[in-house]
Amino acid sequence: MYRLEAPLARPDSEETRKKMRAEVLVTVRNFTLYVLALRLAPFLLRQLDKI
Amino acid sequence: MGNVLAAAPPVPPPFPMTGMPVVPGAVTPTPGAGTGKDTAGHNPGSFDELHRKCKGEGRPGGLGRTMSRNYHTVNLSTIGISNYHFGATYVGMKQISPTECFPVCISDIDNSGSMNGQVIHQLTDGVRVKAAFQTQKSRFVTWQVDTEYRAPSYTAAIALGNPDVLLGSAVLVSHYLQALSPSLSLGGELVYHRRPGEEGAMSTIVARYAVNNWVATMNIGASGVHASYHHKASEQIQVGVELEANARLQETLCTLGYQVDLPRTNMVFRGSVDSNWTVSSVLEKKLPPLPLTLALAATINHRKHKFQCGFGLTIG
């Protein structure tokens, strides 16, 4: 008796690579925005103090 | 600055609240030592030193070996193979503050031939570079180059670890720490790693609140949480508590530690207990006028029925 099975779905390396790159870019973008917000925070706090 | 280098301290293993050696020439300025030109006027210090107080580093009365230019350390221990370390430190003549001279070269080699070394240099008023490497027996294990820029109200750093041009692999770590007020600092860390067929990035957010005699620090990221609280109760007594939760390994460790300095007797006693019920203690005693420091260390875990002890003698 033969048992037929669908071949295991192999992860598409190109797609995986693209996904990893996209995740990296998102993380870098979020970190950059966070750093920018931190850089601006002292200025904003100073402006709030003046009010 | 993204310490990719995992330099192990050469003194007996069960040392709680100890870490990388502190070098006289490379004492990092305390947070809040900025020039006062910028918004907050308080440099928040280095990212690597956020949990340093709880780790027991940067103390003026640290281990004798760390305060001397050259040292020899012999460790006899029940834990593993006893070893011998030789360390040498070179401190240059470029003095930028009463406690800082550059360049600084630190190296440590043990009897198996494993060596780690660091070169730290202050290029300009705000820019500091560090190169570090570590060998294990005859193999290069890690090497990294760090650059740190300290402005009056923030510190930014970037580190490159284990770069391999042929394989296309490297680790890049970026830090940013901003002082929002004399007490409060916020920052973040971005770690990017790349090797053939794989790359990833991870970010961590950090906050530190420091007042006269206590410091609370917290790192939160996808990889886990690291929080610490250090309180200097008096000139002699310091206590600290640390929580480390690793999301990937599903592990949490909480450690409570204390340190008692007895300057009249040239003794420092440190003890800790963690959530795995491991109790550790270290007694260090300088033996003036001889350039010797004796260290006795012991660790016991009642649950696992494990007891370890050792002693170290540092010459230098």
UniProtKB/TrEMBL annotation, chain A:
<keyword id="KW-0496">Mitochondrion</keyword>
<keyword id="KW-0472">Membrane</keyword>
<dbReference type="GO" id="GO:0015031">
    <property type="term" value="P:protein transport"/>
</dbReference>
<dbReference type="InterPro" id="IPR019603">
    <property type="entry name" value="Tom5"/>
</dbReference>
<dbReference type="InterPro" id="IPR029179">
    <property type="entry name" value="TOMM5_metazoa"/>
</dbReference>
<dbReference type="Pfam" id="PF10642">
    <property type="entry name" value="Tom5"/>
</dbReference>
<keyword id="KW-0813">Transport</keyword>
<keyword id="KW-0653">Protein transport</keyword>
<keyword id="KW-0812">Transmembrane</keyword>
<dbReference type="GO" id="GO:0005742">
    <property type="term" value="C:mitochondrial outer membrane translocase complex"/>
</dbReference>
<dbReference type="GO" id="GO:0006626">
    <property type="term" value="P:protein targeting to mitochondrion"/>
</dbReference>
<keyword id="KW-1000">Mitochondrion outer membrane</keyword>
<protein>
    <recommendedName>
        <fullName>Mitochondrial import receptor subunit TOM5 homolog</fullName>
    </recommendedName>
</protein>
<comment type="similarity">
    <text>Belongs to the Tom5 family.</text>
</comment>
<keyword id="KW-1133">Transmembrane helix</keyword>
UniProtKB/TrEMBL annotation, chain B:
<keyword id="KW-1134">Transmembrane beta strand</keyword>
<dbReference type="Pfam" id="PF01459">
    <property type="entry name" value="Porin_3"/>
</dbReference>
<keyword id="KW-1000">Mitochondrion outer membrane</keyword>
<dbReference type="GO" id="GO:0008320">
    <property type="term" value="F:protein transmembrane transporter activity"/>
</dbReference>
<protein>
    <submittedName>
        <fullName>Translocase of outer mitochondrial membrane 40 like</fullName>
    </submittedName>
</protein>
<keyword id="KW-0472">Membrane</keyword>
<dbReference type="InterPro" id="IPR027246">
    <property type="entry name" value="Porin_Euk/Tom40"/>
</dbReference>
<keyword id="KW-0812">Transmembrane</keyword>
<dbReference type="InterPro" id="IPR023614">
    <property type="entry name" value="Porin_dom_sf"/>
</dbReference>
<dbReference type="InterPro" id="IPR037930">
    <property type="entry name" value="Tom40"/>
</dbReference>
<dbReference type="GO" id="GO:0005741">
    <property type="term" value="C:mitochondrial outer membrane"/>
</dbReference>
<keyword id="KW-0653">Protein transport</keyword>
<keyword id="KW-0496">Mitochondrion</keyword>
<comment type="similarity">
    <text>Belongs to the Tom40 family.</text>
</comment>
<keyword id="KW-0813">Transport</keyword>
<dbReference type="GO" id="GO:0030150">
    <property type="term" value="P:protein import into mitochondrial matrix"/>
</dbReference>
